[in-house]
Amino acid sequence: MSNKIILASKSKIRKDILDRNNIESIVEPSNVDEDTVKLSLIKEKATPEIISKNLAELKANKVSAKKIDQIVLGADSVIDLDGELISKPESREEAMTILKKLNGKSHFLISSVCISKNGSMIWNYTDKATLTMKDLSEEDLKKYLTKISDEALYAYNVYQIEGEGRNLFLSINGDEDTIMGLPIKKIKEYLKNL
To answer: pTM score, two decimals?
Structure first.
């Protein structure tokens, strides 16, 4: 594929996954107000999976509407804890609250991707991984938070699976790239057939 795809995300890890897989891309964040969209969908009783799919599509479509005949990739990842949507923390206190909620339990990490062209979705895919967190003491959780930079903490939910976050888990079942926010195998399959 000669044309670069446009990544409608400012996520460094998503860009890295594309680069590692030799998919040329340029970054153009969508600047979608995710919180407003999430609140609206939660009011409509949407599941975390539906919320993730809708956000990925919204991001891709928004950028795609301005980029005629370009392929735009939108993505979104959320945590589903027993049907409750867990969003990225906005403070260290909030991160601690989230870690306490996840502590000793299993949850789903849902990653959705959408490819749009001329403002409309032409393909989408959602993958899910199951992560079971160790039962850790409050002291261990505090120690973990001291090792995580603000940038990593606010960008990757509360754990960065490719770094310190791996140590929080008893088991991880699912595709690593999905957990990091981009189910790349399916994206590559789609782009190859495009």
So the answer is: 0.91
What share of the chain in percent tops pLDDT 90?
A: 76
Range of the domain at 138: 5-193
Q: Are strands 25-27 and 106-117 parallel, antiparallel or unpaired?
A: unpaired
Whether the CB-CB separation of 74 and 125 falls below 8 Å is answered with: no
pLDDT band at 23 (very low <50, low <70, confident <90, very high): very high
Q: Which of 125, 143, 146 is nearest to 134 (CA)?
A: 143
Cα 113 to Cα 182: distance, rounded to the nearest angstrom: 7
Known active-site residue 76? yes
Of 19, 33, 76, 82, catalytic: 76
CATH number of the domain residue 126 falls in: 3.90.950.10
Look at the chain and report how many structural domains it folds into. 1
